[in-house]
TrEMBL record:
Any single Pfam family the record assigns to this protein: MFS_1
Organism: Rhodococcus tukisamuensis
Assigned keywords, A-Z: Cell membrane, Membrane, Transmembrane, Transmembrane helix, Transport
Bilayer disposition of the protein: Multi-pass membrane protein
Protein name, per record: Major Facilitator Superfamily protein
All copies of domain Major facilitator superfamily (MFS) profile, residue ranges: 17-464
SUPFAM superfamilies: MFS general substrate transporter
Length: 481
């Protein structure tokens, strides 16, 4: 049975704890995208092709998707502070290996180890829930969600200047230092919560989750090269379906599931998670492919020949508008409802991809797309947290919010693999991806995100949510903690 807690204990400065969590979350989100603007350079340095080097993003997201529910469960069992410190140290080690890697194989291993940092998300949500004053919890959850997206956008901007000033290896040394600092801060600043949830880790569920994700992502990424109707691709897709069904069955029957299927059946939860999955497909594909598109020499028939720094500056409006929209999302949700904000955000982000489809020939067209994209994703990410907090009892806030973030990560891994598959499926005789590949890829992403907006329309109104909760009054996410 879960021990009750009354929130922050006397003498514990929750602001200092929040600062440490902010550093950890920012470092995690930077790891998602810091390498994205320099993928072409890493491709040449590691002597590989575009499809393979894109796995530097996919491997990270895949590892994070599996690690997130496992480490959240372990933190509930043995203590969130201990597990958070361990996660940060492991991610630091992965960053060090990445800084020293000279082959794509070692680099992919390093990225998979870095992905363990995904455990920071549920642990941070749990620490906020256990240690913060009750009136600050919902707002902190919203800001945590915004940090994840904003940090990812900043990685696109910072990658170029870091490489120009310090070299490729510092894309890994800097996160290693940040993770190390956050680990030390966790040990000395973050209090150990007395809250424990007895249980065990379902390793069978973890293996099945890993299995169906790997099978699906390999099939999607290798489809153009192997052939979509080839036995290998069809076999992997069939295996993914079988393993996913087995995973869902195991989770439903387990008394300590990694992902609570009963909670997932709440109408407001599963519809929000479906929207999050589809929105994640589009969000993370931007990290890998917009910088590569901008850096392509115009002789290929598209692109602007931008430097790494220039491509980062062109993408910068995405991060800025993401932050502003995330801050305003709480106020807009309070006035118009979180569902309306989520639908609007997803529709705006979908429209941004359509701008990339039809106005990709000018820098200003791309800048306008980035403004729309940051606004849309900023509104969507923060409003999803609001809906989740409203849809579950207070004791499930951390688990439900962490699950939503994890599902977005799964969507991101799928989106990166899908975009790579589409782009590399259209190659010019020179070996450079054709412009039609990017156009098709952006179109697919637009469809995915707009489907996310349609999924958000299925979210039941707030009144229906209150009835499910038995008339409880869940708190709303504000713009700041």
């Amino acid at each position: 049975m879960r021990k009750a807690t009354s929130g922050r204990r006397a003498g514990t400065p929750y602001q200092a704890t929040y600062l440490v969590l902010a550093v950890a979350l920012t470092a995690y989100s930077l790891l998602q995208s810091l390498v994205a603007p320099v993928l072409p350079m890493l491709q040449a340095s590691l002597h590989t092709d575009q499809n393979t080097v894109t796995w530097m993003l996919t491997a990270y997201l895949l590892s994070a998707a599996v690690a997130t529910p496992i480490l959240g469960r372990v933190g509930d069992m043995v203590g969130k502070k201990k597990v958070l410190a361990a996660v940060l140290l492991v991610a630091c080690l992965g960053s060090i290996v990445g800084a020293l890697a000279h082959s794509i194989g070692v680099m992919l291993v390093a990225r998979a180890v870095q992905g363990v940092a995904g455990g920071v998300i549920p642990l941070a949500f749990g620490i906020v829930r256990d240690e913060f004053p009750r009136e600050k919890v919902a707002g902190a959850v919203g800001v945590v969600s915004a940090l994840i997206g904003v940090g990812g956008g900043l990685g696109l901007v910072l990658g170029g200047p870091i490489v120009d000033a310090l070299g490729l290896s510092w894309l890994f040394w800097i996160p290693a230092i940040a993770m190390g600092v956050a680990a030390v801060g966790t040990v000395f600043v973050v209090p150990e919560s007395p809250v424990r949830t007895p249980g065990r880790v379902s390793w069978l569920a973890a293996v099945l989750l890993s299995g169906w994700l790997v099978a699906l992502l390999v099939a999607v990424s290798e489809g153009p090269r192997w052939g979509w109707t080839s036995g290998a691709v069809l076999g992997l897709l069939a295996l993914a379906v079988v393993l996913a069904a087995a995973w869902a069955m195991v989770e439903r029957r387990d008394t300590s599931p990694l992902i609570d299927m009963e909670m997932m059946r709440i109408p407001a939860v599963w519809t929000t998670n479906l929207a999050g999955l589809l929105i994640g497909v589009g969000m993370y594909s931007v990290f890998a492919f917009v910088p590569a598109f901008l850096q392509t020499d115009p002789s290929a028939g598209y692109g602007f020949g931008s430097s790494i720094v220039e491509s980062g500056l062109i993408v910068l409006p995405l991060s800025l508008t993401f932050l502003v929209a995330g801050i305003w999302s709480g106020r807009l949700s309070h006035r118009f409802g979180a569902k309306a904000v989520l639908v609007t955000g997803a529709a705006t982000a979908g429209a941004a991809f359509l701008v990339l489809v039809f106005a990709q020939s000018t820098v200003w067209g791309v800048v306008i797309a980035m403004v729309l994209m940051g606004t849309g994703f900023g509104l969507a990410f923060s409003s999803m947290s609001n809906i989740i907090v409203q849809a579950v009892p207070p004791r499930q806030t951390g688990a439900a919010s962490g699950t939503n973030a994890n599902i977005r990560t799964i969507g991101g891994a799928l989106g990166s693999a899908l975009m790579a598959s589409v782009v590399t499926g259209h190659v010019q005789p020179s070996g450079v991806p054709a412009g039609s590949g990017y156009t098709a890829g952006f179109t697919v992403m637009a469809v995915a995100v707009l489907l996310g907006a349609l999924a958000a329309l299925l979210i039941p109104p707030r009144r229906a949510v209150d009835e499910v909760l038995g008339g409880a009054a869940p708190v709303a996410v504000s713009a700041a903690a």
